[in-house]
Amino acid sequence: MNSLNTEAFTLFGQHILWSDMTGNILGLIGLVLGWRRSLWSWPVQFVSGLVLFAAFYGHLTGSAGKQAVVMVVALYGFWQWNRGRGGAGDGHISPRFASRRERAALVGAAAIGTVAVALLFTAFPELSWDPWPDAYIFVGTVVAMYAQAKGMVEFWFAWLLVDLVGVPLNFANGYAFSGFVYVIYGALVLWGMRDWWLRSRKSPRPVLEGAPA
């Protein structure tokens, strides 16, 4: 595990760690596969979390714990997408917009979760180097992955909001490769958002029982 935290190379004066590079490249691939609505998005995200968990375990307990949660959500996402395959008629899930109640639940969970996790990080400083932004990114990531598991177009908006804080925070804390990857994430999020948005408008709407087709 110590080898994961050794320096791979230096880029623009920033020291790039093997763990940071490997985990985030896998995360980037997972996002691309999510854009394509591929079931493989979830195993790749799981392995990404596993790599970062191994790198952080025994060094940054809070970061390792966050990756454990990410892996659990990845397993849930795989289960959900496996159940929903074929919903769009092409062997993949059918993207949709969340209902008002679901949007309110996502926003509420993000707000309450961020405060709760930030207070936990503040009470135990060894869990995080920057409690509030770190809590925001962690909870935002979990909310985004959950929305992705449900096939909601809003998951792209959640990722975009995470990126806005993730880029400067990663550069500030020496995880330069994560910062660069988050910039790429931002571009992919915009493309993916457009693709899912258009697909959600083309998806067949459910017909009520007894109603004319």
- Helix fraction by DSSP (H/I, runs of at least 4): 55-70%
Going by helix content, strand content and strand pairing, the class is mainly alpha
Q: Note the beta-strand portion.
A: under 5%
Number of helical regions: 7
Query: What do the pLDDT scores average to?
Result: 80
Rg, alpha carbons: 18 Å
Spatial sequence of strands, sheet with the most strands: 1-2
What shape does the CA trace take? globular
Q: How far is it from the N-terminal to the C-terminal residue, by CA?
A: 58 Å
The string of secondary-structure elements, in order, is EEHHHHHHH
Give the oligomer, counting copies of the same chain as homo and different chains as hetero. Answer: single chain
Largest sheet, if any? 2 strands, antiparallel
Uncertain residue ranges = 205-213
Task: Give me the count of strands.
Answer: 2
Membrane topology: Multi-pass membrane protein
Pfam families: NMN_transporter
Family: Belongs to the nicotinamide ribonucleoside (NR) uptake permease (TC 4.B.1) family.
Keywords: Cell membrane, Membrane, Transmembrane, Transmembrane helix, Transport
Characterise the protein shown here.
Belongs to the nicotinamide ribonucleoside (NR) uptake permease (TC 4.B.1) family. It is found in: Cell membrane. Its main location: membrane. The chain crosses the membrane at residues 12-33, 40-58, 103-124, 136-162, 174-193. It is a multi-pass membrane protein. With 213 residues, the chain is mainly α. The chain is 69% helix and 4% strand. The protein contains seven helices and two strands, in the order E-E-H-H-H-H-H-H-H. It has helices at 18-35, 41-56, 61-84, 100-123, 131-149, 154-172, 176-202; strands at 7-11, 14-17. Strands 1-2 form a two-stranded antiparallel ribbon. The longest helix has 27 residues, at 176-202. The radius of gyration is 18 Å and the shape is globular. Mean pLDDT is 80; it is low at 205-213.
